[in-house]
Amino acid sequence: MAPSDLGNVTAIIGTQWGDEGKGKLVDILAPRYDWIVRATGGANAGHTIYVNEKKFVFHQIPSGALQMNTKMIIGNGCVINIPSLAEEIELLKKEGVTLDGRLFISDRVHVVCDYHKKIDILQEEMKGGKKIGTTGRGIGPGYSDKINRMGVRLGEILNWESFESHYRNNLALLQKIYPGLEHDAEAELGAFKQHREALMPYIADTAYLLHTEMVAGKKILLEGANATMLDIDHGTYPFVTSSNASIGGIITGSGMPPRKIDSIIGILKAYTTRVGAGPFPSELNDETGEYLRTKGGEFGSTTGRPRRCGWLDTVVAKYACMLNGITHINLTKLDVLTGLPTLRIVTGYKFNGTTLESFPADLNKLTPENGFEPEYTDLPGWTEALDNVTEFEQLPVNAQNYVKKLEEIIGLPMTYIGVGYNRNQLITK
Ligand code: GDP
Ligand code: IMO
Ligand code: MG
Prior knowledge:
Layout: E1 9-14, H1 22-29, E2 35-38, E3 47-51, E4 54-58, E5 71-74, E6 79-80, H2 82-94, E7 103-106, E8 110-111, H3 114-126, H4 139-147, H5 160-177, H6 185-199, E9 203-204, H7 206-215, E10 220-223, H8 247-254, E11 263-269, E12 272-274, H9 287-295, E13 308-310, E14 312-313, H10 314-324, E15 328-332, E16 342-351, E17 354-355, E18 372-380, H11 397-410, E19 414-418, E20 426-428
This protein binds guanosine-5'-diphosphate, 6-O-phosphoryl inosine monophosphate and magnesium ion.
């Protein structure tokens, strides 16, 4: 499928463990769309965009904000932290980016409070050596309240008395569950009250709005957050986030009917990174891993933590393409591989001598001590910088061969290839 086949409704999804470069493509494609919609996750996401060397990191606001003709939705599947959202809005305003009349936040979005962050940290402490390595943004406890049918939704803030009472009940219940949980409710409610007036105009029934716009023929880009391998169902559970980051979550979290989605772009980094704990079959704990981290600037956009680095894993990529029904791939950060003499690609998983057919649920099957072994294909690298390459044919032959090999293994076209973090550093193949 060529970019011209993207159609009216496109979804963008991370195919690995996050930070593949979703934000950059959303920003580049945004002018083609009328609406950019976030449907999952919260402030755990960090989507980076560079405009003339100026860095913007989006956590809760869709990454289309800088393209002034697009409108944005924070869909019902997201969880939001009100003060951080207000801060993000304020930061953009300082850069001359106004969101008035452009941003719509679902009244069904769940509110992550500061006590959720405390519980997040508390739970991590209680896990001792089995920490997930969360972003500490209260995501797990926020989504838990939603699933447990005790969460506070943003729409409730329109009626302050009811919001306040629900907030207090929620906190009281959690304090029964976590007896050590201390929290200054007055201070937090005070902060909410302070942001309330400014937030109210953004609150809307976004699923209905989206349908109205879709019926009117408007173009919609659904911006995935987190990634397939962090999906609560399909990822490396329990080392995952607390929502469905893959296509199902995007559908539920926006209200978009599945058959209306025309194209699904999988974002695939040319190597693999992961923040936080959990299995990582192609991880490199050596100087090559360090090379990727330094050259790729692999430090968390949300927490600043160093990202773990490793080779590209096509078992993961194929699994993500299968689950999401990916139609196009954006291979990102190919430029980072420049200078490595040999490039390794994971092509299969062996467990006690038997080939695993797909990504296993049982994480014990991924530990070398238990008999796990990844299978690799090696390809020669290249030394030329790719920063100024604009056409696929201008890439060094070995870089072209690396891309072609991935297309052959994964069975999908690498429609977009990233060769730098700037807007213009994207090859369309
Ligand atoms: P996201 O969470 O998927 O949006 O990704 P992040 O923003 O967390 O991390 C991706 C990082 O890689 C950001 O700093 C981007 O600016 C950067 N990036 C994206 N595409 C490319 C690329 O093709 N080459 C290089 N060198 N950097 C890229
Ligand atoms: P973007 O959208 C990378 C990871 C955390 C942790 C696990 C659970 O920028 O790609 P959580 O705070 O969600 O409970 O943490 O999930 N994680 C991400 N890692 N990029 C992300 O988002 C992530 N969102 C969550 O590091 O391992
Ligand atoms: Mg990120």
